Amino acid sequence: MTVTTDPTAIAPGSLAASVMRYGDLMIETAARAKAGVSDDELWVPISRLVATETFRRVGPLREEWDWQGYTRFLTPWARTTEFNTIFRRISETGNLVFLELTEHNTHNGVLSVVNSLSLYRFDAGGRIDHLQIYLQLSPEAAVALSQMQV
Q1: Which pTM does this prediction carry?
Q2: To bridge 32 with a disulfide, which of 37, 90, 92, 133 should be the other Cys (CB 3.0-4.6 Å)?
Q3: Which DSSP string do the residues of 26-54 spell out, in sequence order?
């Protein structure tokens, strides 16, 4: 297992590097969404890293989505939320990558800060086919999360 707390130490071409690229693209996609990029074009860059035909995402409320459903869920978030992250740690073993972040989301002027652990699984072609999200959050953030449409 490879573990690092220094994002500059991640080996190029590794699965961990793909996860870091996915995160960068998520932030870029949110910015593009606010700039008026169409729904059809919005998720194209990030989808190149994803096995869109077999992808499954399991969220913190144990909700499950395929790629199409996940992007439908994310699009309103991307258009209305300011989002950034603080990197904590990344670990890679076999076809799995574990990413720890502190995530900052500002929606309607309200800041929500959560600690997240995301599990990324990769298929034989090196694309993300499974994403599982675990969150550690304040009681206020828990209420806001429970009110999101799933």
Answers
A1: 0.89
A2: 37
A3: HHHHHHHHHTT--HHHHTHHHHTTB-TTT
